[in-house]
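Holo prediction — D-xylitol-5-phosphate.
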Amino acid sequence: MAARYKLAPSILSADFARLGEEVARVEKYADLLHIDAMDGHFVPPITIGPVVVKALRAVTSLPLECHLMVTDPLGQTAQFAEAGATSVVAHIEATPDPEPVIERARSLGLGVGISLNPPTPLDAILPFLERVDVLNVMTVNPGWAGQRFIPEMLPKIEAARAEIDRRGLDVAIAVDGGIDLDTGRDALDAGATVLGAASAIFSRPDPAEAARALKELLSEREANA
Ligand code: DX5
Ligand code: ZN
């Protein structure tokens, strides 16, 4: 059976001049790679696009989850699919009706997730919960790695967990932003199942050890599930 609890290293804090090596260092502890695509409109920075996804696809067999912090996820999903993405995660703030993105992603054979920013209430995504694989709860404001986890998001995670369980859905809850061993534990306690982490892995002196420790936390939860 596929693991319920997953580690998603986010390459945003990796050394982009040595991206393949960076991925190789954490690969054995990772369940997927989280790739933060930012377009300079939805958020101020411009980061990674399909060309980098294509390069990664050639060097790892890990699933590639593309977090689309872009204003036009519908228009861009096909490019990410073509580059070798495994799934796309679109923001409810960019696409208040995400059905067309969900349909396009499915028609291209991709997994699909929906993400919400800290100020956005959970209610905004509830109508679409049945249709997605992952709910990505932002625990920082999107745009940059290395920010502090916002603890006020914990009740949102708890509410999402309660609703997913009430409906009997198999939707993963990912947390994204400021996740380390401490905040990761809090997020898991609140009901998250996927930990995304950039700086807590790639900004550490030993990224492999950092990934191993996070994975161990997840494996403990898996064993007790
Ligand atoms: C933020 C991104 C996150 C980011 C997390 O906009 O969506 O995925 O990489 O970085 P850390 O783990 O450093 O907070
Ligand atoms: Zn992200």
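READOUT: Residues 6-224 form a domain with the TIM Barrel fold (CATH 3.20.20.70).
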